[in-house]
């Protein structure tokens, strides 16, 4: 669902599964007494301040030693997951089609929210349109 919501390629399904497990291990469960599985295991509450929207656009900073004259200093990528090291993220780079781990990122979460809302509105529009057509058809059939 996360991949379809953001329109990501299907070959990133492994990253989506890993991210889902990562997030579920840091989410509250009633069966554990409103604790996370990680907290129940390690007795320490996990830090969730680094959570971002899956599939959001990110701009990766290129280090100075990799700079070249007149080349861009950032790379465009897509957030596809987290690592065990805090504030390191797994990023799918669009230009090289590889998944890498980066720390210095700028997130464009508004774009991801906009894409998600537009898809949801489109889905609801078609659902409501089909429903209204069915209602009109049933009313026409009742008249005859």
Layout: helices, strands, pairs:
Blueprint (H helix, E strand, L loop, with lengths): L1 H5 L6 H12 L12 H6 L14 E5 L12 E9 L6 E5 L4 E5 L2 E4 H35 L1
Antiparallel strand pairs: 1-2, 1-5, 2-3, 3-4
Indicate the overall shape.
flat
The pLDDT mean sits at 82
Q: What class do helices, strands and sheet pairing give? A: alpha+beta
Query: What order do the SSEs take from the amino end to the carboxyl end, as H and E?
Result: HHHEEEEEH
**Structure summary, number of beta strands:** 5
Number of helices: 4
Q: Main beta sheet, described?
A: 5 strands, antiparallel
**CA-atom Rg in angstroms:** 21 Å
List segments where confidence is low: pLDDT < 50 over at least 5 consecutive residues. none
Distance between the termini: 44 Å
Approximate strand percentage: 15-25%
| Range of helix content | 40-55%
Q: How are the strands ordered across the major sheet? A: 4-3-2-1-5
Question: Quick recap of the structure?
Answer:
It is built from four helices and five strands. It is of the alpha+beta class and 144 residues long.
Description of the structure:
With 144 residues, this protein is α+β, with helices and mostly antiparallel strands. 40% of the residues lie in helices and 19% in strands. The chain has 4 helices and 5 strands; from the N terminus they run H-H-H-E-E-E-E-E-H. It has helices at 2-6, 13-24, 37-42, 109-143; strands spanning 57-61, 74-82, 89-93, 98-102, 105-108. It has a 5-stranded antiparallel β-sheet with strand order 4-3-2-1-5. A hairpin with a 4-residue loop joins strand 3 and strand 4 (98-102). The radius of gyration is 21 Å and the shape is flat. The termini are far apart.
């Amino acid at each position: 669902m996360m991949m379809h919501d953001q329109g990501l390629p299907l070959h990133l399904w492994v990253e989506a599964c890993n991210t889902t497990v990562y997030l579920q291990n840091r989410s509250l469960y009633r069966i554990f007494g409103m604790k996370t599985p990680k907290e129940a295991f390690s007795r320490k509450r996990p830090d969730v301040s680094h959570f971002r929207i899956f599939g959001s656009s990110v701009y990766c900073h290129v280090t100075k030693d990799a700079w070249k004259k007149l080349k861009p200093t950032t790379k465009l990528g897509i957030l596809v997951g987290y690592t065990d090291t805090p504030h390191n993220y797994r990023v799918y780079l669009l230009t090289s089609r590889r998944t890498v781990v980066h720390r210095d990122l700028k997130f464009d979460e508004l774009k991801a929210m906009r894409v998600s809302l537009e898809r949801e509105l489109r889905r609801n529009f078609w659902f409501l349109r089909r429903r209204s057509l069915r209602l009109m058809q049933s009313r026409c059939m009742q008249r005859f």
